[in-house]
């Protein structure tokens, strides 16, 4: 009798806790990526391989350019720059879409792309040789990272929050493989091997999830650090050789993305500058280098089935990358601090609507209702570009209505400002209280049952 009462209490409690949900309606057939890889090349200036640019040293002399074949695939944004050519800050801008972000900002709630992907069921995993500061690590479900910047004596660690079964073992396996990659090598070969290990480890992680967790969406963040190290410690000629090595070493990971419907984003935190031709050291963040185009220009190359191919003109900033990544994944750009905007590269547009869960949200075209749904967040995906629609949200508080012409993704918030559901508790707090209450009921039930047995 008491056992049944406990079960009833649990069920009642579970279903009485309102948890926000997302409904997605695809109005047309679309080809959208299942997952994504964000591949960050530390210190990689687009000036050294983009055909539009010719790199120069501080004294005006012309520098060498890399011969590349694989680094311009899919969609290539011709002119995109960082405002802050500093590793920690630039990585923070990359993942928050906020031009004034720093490492602390990354730790704020709902600040990063990782917060958004997690809310939509993605697993976040990373393999990083640079940019792996504490708040970046804490955003990952699992990360294999470098404790130091040393290529001669690298120290790798693994931090786990939660991850699909088997990934932790794979990360440890690749941690132990690094010495074999570096053994007996020196100079450019050693630096390239350090990058190659990271690329191969990332490829193994992607393949493992694809094979063993085929329905699981993921965001894999990768940072290779040896091109930046090469720029600081070697000449401009060796820096270019490292870029050419990357061009060939990257192909297996690129092929995995291509063959498995994974969006691939190639970018950098900042570039690299040299004082003269044949200078043996370069830089990017000091006053001497930080304003030079070679330090500020970064690549942005995207491979995805739902993006246009070719060169994207115009001028863009690093803070535009995070909103663009979310747009390509058809995820809402609810980044808390973002001031960047998605670059219009998708073949279609999506409309994202937030509303009180009891509201009926509907999409209309030429007076005809196309679809209707009731949820805390509704996504209408696959809408033709340059088309016009009306969005309505009807409920006890009235009716909201917006007309929109789609030249890109659009976002609407129809939640009433005064609405404070569940005593103003947000979804995360409600979930936490639900768990606590369930545990209390479980423990109370066990105590009662034990007393009856005694």
What does this structure look like?
With 454 residues, the chain is an alpha/beta fold. The protein folds into 2 domains: 35-328, 3-Layer(aba) Sandwich (Alkaline Phosphatase, subunit A); 348-411, Immunoglobulin-like, CATH 2.60.40.10. The chain contains 13 helices and 19 strands. It has helices at residues 2-16, 87-96, 113-119, 134-138, 167-182, 187-212, 226-233, 236-249, 251-259, 293-296, 321-328, 421-424, 427-453; strands at 22-26, 35-41, 75-81, 123-128, 142-146, 156-160, 218-224, 262-267, 273-274, 282-283, 300-303, 310-317, 349-354, 360-365, 368-373, 377-383, 388-395, 398-405, 410-413. The chain has a 9-stranded mixed β-sheet with strand order 6-5-4-7-2-8-11-3-12, sandwiched between helices. Strands 1-16-13-19 form a 4-stranded mixed β-sheet, with no helix packed on it. α4 (134-138) links the parallel β4 (123-128) and β5 (142-146). α6 packs parallel to α8 (236-249).
């Amino acid at each position: 009798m008491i056992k049944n009462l406990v079960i009833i209490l649990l069920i009642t409690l579970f279903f009485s806790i309102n948890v926000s949900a997302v409904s997605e309606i695809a109005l047309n057939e679309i080809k959208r990526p299942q997952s994504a890889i964000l591949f960050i090349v530390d210190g990689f200036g687009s000036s050294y391989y983009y055909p539009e640019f010719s790199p120069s040293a501080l004294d005006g002399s012309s520098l060498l350019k890399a011969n590349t074949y694989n680094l311009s695939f899919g969609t290539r944004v011709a002119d995109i720059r960082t405002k802050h050519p500093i590793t920690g800050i630039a990585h923070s801008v990359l993942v928050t879409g906020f031009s004034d972000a720093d490492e602390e900002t990354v730790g704020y709630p709902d600040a990063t792309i990782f917060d958004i992907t997690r809310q939509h069921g993605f697993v976040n995993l990373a393999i990083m040789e640079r940019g792996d500061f504490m708040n970046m690590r804490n955003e990952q479900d699992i990360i294999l990272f470098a404790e130091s910047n040393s290529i001669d004596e690298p120290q790798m660690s693994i931090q786990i929050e939660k991850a699909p079964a088997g990934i932790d073992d794979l990360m440890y396996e690749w941690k132990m493989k690094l010495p074999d990659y570096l053994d007996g090598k020196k100079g450019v070969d050693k630096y390239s091997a350090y990058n190659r290990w990271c690329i191969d480890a990332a490829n193994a992680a992607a393949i493992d999830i694809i094979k063993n967790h085929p329905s699981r969406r993921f965001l894999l963040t990768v940072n290779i650090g040896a091109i930046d190290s090469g720029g600081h410690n070697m000449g401009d000629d060796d820096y270019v050789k490292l870029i050419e090595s990357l061009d060939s070493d990257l192909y297996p990971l690129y092929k995995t993305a291509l063959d498995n419907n994974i969006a691939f984003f190639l970018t950098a935190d900042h570039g690299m500058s040299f004082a003269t031709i044949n200078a043996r050291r370069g830089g990017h963040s000091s006053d001497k280098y930080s304003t030079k185009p070679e330090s500020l220009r970064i690549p942005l190359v995207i491979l995805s089935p739902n993006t246009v191919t070719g060169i994207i003109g115009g001028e863009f900033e690093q803070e535009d990358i995070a909103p663009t990544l979310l747009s390509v994944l058809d995820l809402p750009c609810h980044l808390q601090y973002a001031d960047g905007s998605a670059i219009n590269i998708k073949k279609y547009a999506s409309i994202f609507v937030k509303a009180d869960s009891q509201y009926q949200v509907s999409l209309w075209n030429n007076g005809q209702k196309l679809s209707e749904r009731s949820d805390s967040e509704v996504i209408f995906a696959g809408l033709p570009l340059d088309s016009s629609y009306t969005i309505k949200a009807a409920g006890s508080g009235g009716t909201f209505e917006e007309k929109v012409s789609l030249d890109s993704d659009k976002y609407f918030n129809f939640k009433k400002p005064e609405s404070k559901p569940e005593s103003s508790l947000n979804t995360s707090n409600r979930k936490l209280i639900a768990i606590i209450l369930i545990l209390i009921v479980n423990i109370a039930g066990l105590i009662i049952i034990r007393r009856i047995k005694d």
